[in-house]
Amino acid sequence: MSDLLEDHAVAEAVFCPIDVFDVDVIRDDFPILRRRIHGKHLVYLDNAATTQKPQVVIDAVQEYYEQQNANIHRGVHYLSELATHLYEETRQKIRQFINAGSDKEIVFTRGTTESINLIASSYGKAKMGPGDEIIISTMEHHSNIVPWQLLCEQVGAKLRVIPIDNDGDLVLEEYYKLLSEKTKLVSIVHISNTLGTINPIKEVISAAHKHDVPVVVDAAQSMAHLRVDVRELDCDFLAFSGHKMLGPTGIGVLYGKEALLNAMPPYQGGGDMILSVSFEKTTFNELPHKFEAGTPNIAATIGLGKAIDYLLRVGHEKIAVHEDNLLEYANEALAAIPEVRVIGQARQKTSVISFVVDGVHPHDIGTILDQNGVAVRTGHHCTQPLMQRFNVPATTRASFALYNTREEINHFIEAIYGVIRLFK
Ligand code: 7TS
């Protein structure tokens, strides 16, 4: 094992933060940004759906399959020990990244959706019954609505919903009124994928804790933009996806406080999550393995570790400054177009803009933008109740990442003018 640790020492030695944020240097790290779509330069503004991947992440996944592939937690042979080491090293990295207290609190899942389903299936079924209430908000992604609806049907609990105002901010006074002795869980999005609203998550958590109610934070949209510290927030659970933070698809994380996870029954049964099995009785493995049944996505996990290294090397402060500049620039440009109406003007926003254009269906906007090489998302963004709240069937959404530029936004805005000219 000592040569494995030497490899690790080398990896640590090359890790050093950048001094200056240079978007051209960053862009060079993302090979897909060099490609053309329909003969035009790709302008990728669909980062809330999934981000692109830097070369270091792509290389790590390839290197795993070329040089390191073996199953984990079982072999005594070199490759199995190496794969296990790399997999568990990523768990430590994530623990440090979100400032969790222990590696036992970091459970690997397929993504945010699976993390939330795990809580609903395990914690929910064990702790909730008829008449109990779960609080969510109007701006939730379907992944933070449907698992709770399924649970409510199974145990007879009820879903309560925090309203939002016309700007896309939570109405906190209404939230405080919803909290009662019936409340058993609050599950809330940190950053809205449709509005870009950054919710006052600390206030939401501390209000729930006054009623001894645990809080789940859906941080799917947070990790590439903001530094999240689970101990500072004091959240009870946190869910996020690797692919929205420069990492591979098929890997995500559920953070849970150790005492809560310990008290929860397993989510799925199978290999790796047991200590012993007989036909009479099975005893379960300890945390976090109790929740990781079957062979996981080892390559993607290692890739996620590299994505975190990359984000830390650039630094969230520098990323936030760059993205806030882009957001302001794009907001001003869109505000100057009379036919455009931006949906969501929250007090605190991150790099997502949803908008509608008078007389043009978002699907047509998306198609014409695509012909110009501009990738945006159109539709309900898996937030149909939010669309109903704003009385629109769909929006067009541009979402930015650290590698986007003002020139790309100019290109996007020109394409919007082109759409308006075409439909006039
Ligand atoms: N929660 C939020 C806030 C999200 O934005 C998403 C995905 C999810 C949960 C689910 O994440 P997954 O990785 O498990 O799929 N959001 C989007 C989006 O905005 N466009 O495509 C997926």
Describe the structure.
The chain is of the alpha/beta class. The chain has two domains: 78-312, 3-Layer(aba) Sandwich (Aspartate Aminotransferase, domain 2); 316-423, Aspartate Aminotransferase, domain 1 (Alpha-Beta Complex), CATH 3.90.1150.10. Helices cover 42% and strands 16% of the residues. The protein is built from 15 helices and 17 strands. It has helices spanning 2-13, 23-28, 55-68, 78-98, 112-127, 146-155, 172-178, 201-210, 230-233, 258-263, 298-314, 316-335, 362-371, 384-389, 406-423, and strands at residues 36-37, 40-41, 43-44, 106-109, 133-137, 158-162, 183-189, 215-218, 237-241, 252-256, 274-277, 282-284, 340-343, 352-357, 374-375, 377-379, 395-399. The strands form five sheets. It has a seven-stranded mixed β-sheet, with helices on both faces. Strands 13-14-17-16 form a four-stranded antiparallel β-sheet, covered by helices on one side. The longest helix has 21 residues, at 78-98. Mean pLDDT is 95; it is low at 9-14. Ligand 7TS binds next to helix 5. Ligand 7TS binds at residues 48-49, 111-113, 141, 143-144, 189, 193, 218, 220-221, 241, 377, 381-382.
